Amino acid sequence: xxxxxxxxxxxxxxxxxxxxxxxxxxxxxxxxxxxxxxxxxxxxxxxxxxxxxxxxxxxxxxxxxxxxxxxxxxxxxxxxxxxxxxxxxxxxxxxxxxxxxxxxxxxxxxxxxxxxxxxxxxxxxxxxxxxxxxxxxxxxx
Length: 141
Hints:
Largest sheet: 6 strands, antiparallel
């Protein structure tokens, strides 16, 4: 898989989060390489559903942000941005506290689309909470 990763850094991604949903939720980028990215999020009461379990939207937001930041870091030459055009999440677990991690991996890094897979898991146990796939449309001009 050929990549044309930009010079974007973990620090830059975390700076961009401030004042936007990722910053509001408390997401933090912790690893980035040529084809993958990892983000983390501390679970707190505001991120839970009224039933006391992690809200599905919290998990989707973390996974979509992880893959979106990966896309941002891997934009092909001439691209001006991207947008999510499709996503799917399968939930297989939950959390009530602790920290969750999301690791996104590039499946396809094309000129007009990118496809990313991600796994959200509990940091302490490694237990999978959700598996996620999204397609990003690359914008030009």
